[in-house]
Amino acid sequence: MDGLPPGDSRRYPRSPVVIAAVIVRKGDKILLAKRGGEPYKGLWAPPGGSVELGETVFEAGRREVHEETGVDTAIDGIQEIEDFIRRDPEGMVQAHLVIIRLLGSYSGGTAKADSDADDVGWYSVDELDGLPLRPRVRELAIKAMSWSRE
Question: Is the link from the previous residue into 132 a cis peptide, with omega within 30 of 0?
């Protein structure tokens, strides 16, 4: 969570912040967005963001994908849930994110950078080599490509 501005609501939160991140699959490729802001500015990652009050995780995932990339997606399921907790030197919770990683399938639209993305693209697992990636993206992509709904 380095690089968050001091007033960011994800810094020293009163409660955990829920994040929906989506790996959208289209054939043998996944959709990635180059982050335009912190955290992880300049790194490629699946689109995603905070779940808004009154919104389901799946609704948030679809909305975030569309806002960042212009792509429509059907949510196929949950890949994993990760707790990210960071404490400051005094032991206070500096950040607490509950990241729900969703799997999605392309259902329409043309990929174009929007919202807080500087660029977007469709990549095969092999094409990820050499891209500056957010941590674990390659591992998550490999798992996503082998996942089925059965």
Answer: no
Give the start-to-end residue ranges of the domains of the chain.
Answer: 17-146
Enter the tokens of residue 108.
């329409």
Please state whether the peptide bond connecting residue 135 to the residue before it is cis, i.e. omega within 30 degrees of 0.
no
Domain at 17-146: CATH code: 3.90.79.10
The C-alpha atoms of residue 101 and residue 94 are separated, in whole angstroms, by 22
Query: For the chain, first and last CA: distance in Å?
Result: 35
pLDDT digits (tens, 9 = 90+) for 50-96: 999 999 999 999 999 999 999 999 999 999 999 999 999 999 999 99
Cβ atoms within 10 Å, residue 92 = 8
| The amino acid at 118 | D
Instruction: Give the percent of the chain with pLDDT over 70.
Output: 92
- Give the three-state DSSP class for 96: strand
Residue 32 to residue 24: CA distance in whole angstroms: 8
Question: What pLDDT shows up at residue 4?
Answer: 57
Which two tokens mark 14? 């009163």
Q: Would you place residue 130 in the very low, low, confident or very high pLDDT band (cuts 50, 70, 90)?
A: confident
- For the entire predicted model, the pTM comes to 0.88
